[in-house]
Amino acid sequence: MQHFSHLEPATLEYLFHRPPVAVTAESDLTTRALALGATLYVPATRANLVETVRKRAAEGSRSVVLDLEDAVADGDLEAARGHVVAALDALAVDPPETAVFVRVRTAEDMHHVCDRLTTGFDVLHGFVLPKFRPESGEKFLEEVAARSAAAGRHLVVMPVMESREMVYRETRDDELAGARDVLGRHRDSVLAVRVGATDMSGAFGIRRDRDLTIYDVRVVADTIGAIVNHLGRSDGTGFVVTGPVWEYFADHERLFRPMLRATPFAEHDAVRFRQQLVSRDIDGLLREVALDRANGLHGKTVIHPSHVAAVHSLSVVTHEEYQDAQAIASSSAGGGVLASGYGNKMNELGPHRPWAEQTLRRAAVFGVTAEGVSFVDVMQALARRPASVTGTAR
């Protein structure tokens, strides 16, 4: 799969100094995890499941989750399982340009799907495991490894950190240390770690308002910080940790000012475009994506197709970031500082090297903007595709 491959060649040439490269099943896990971008969740009960996946892939979604957990009522589970199997087999006839996963409730769901698939293994990349806990999670990972061997396909897992034991302060560190040990033993099967902020909020009877980001909800922000501390380290023991869902996509009466500064849009003759984003609550999403990356998270869970362009636009590496990352990563000096080629900051070769290496990985999968091109230009290019901001995955 390749990000932005649905855009016209002339548009790609205008936007990118270096366009994205293709990511395959043979790419290393970190590259594949960074390439997830906006992971679109689709209820497994959706009537036109195959058509939905194909349509979203054509619009630029590069990772999709068929959801058997929260999106499915208990009484509909059996039918939803069959629906997933049928959809995967149908998609395998002409595989879409997107990585397809299934979010299960238990290992029983995973076995049910795997036992009934015929050609569907050709498009199934793996499973999302909700409410991950060390003991049950290890058993699940062992069963996925056995299924991978039987199917002759390397299935991967994305555990979701959202259990109450990980949220409550008195049990959090023990739970996360246990998760770190388990995931470390199964490193080859773990694609990325996902964050379930909705379940975390529910532990305290909280639902954040659309005028706020998840980082304004302190008990959840503290937990995200702890997850990154245990599982997102850059010393070779960590994993790619993805951002939690942004749940809003409709206009509403605002209590606070929009979170989107007007200046970048005015500079790119896109004031009206900014107004459209604000009216759909995309300004809050953009703010949260920026805070995700500032806190060590990459990519995001999304439940609406209009969110995909926002996440991917901010995932592109800017020309300035790329120049800094290249200068730092290519230096043979063990320490010291270098002036940025943009003349506006100092790059410290020691502490900034992990950032530079990760930025270059992101540059490969999402591309590097041309000089003078911003995320506003990328978002506008994506919005000009008529279907890119319509419909809903729910």
From TrEMBL:
Entry cofactors: Mg(2+)
Keyword Lyase belongs to the record: yes
Record keywords, A-Z: Lyase, Magnesium, Metal-binding
Domain of life: Bacteria
Magnesium found in the keyword field: yes
Example of a GO MF term: lyase activity
InterPro entries: C-C_Bond_Lyase-like, Pyrv/PenolPyrv_kinase-like_dom, Pyrv_kinase-like_dom_sf
Gene3D superfamilies registered for this protein in UniProt: Phosphoenolpyruvate-binding domains
Classification via PANTHER family: CITRATE LYASE SUBUNIT BETA (PTHR32308:SF10), LYASE BETA SUBUNIT, PUTATIVE (AFU_ORTHOLOGUE AFUA_4G13030)-RELATED (PTHR32308)
Protein name: Citrate lyase beta subunit
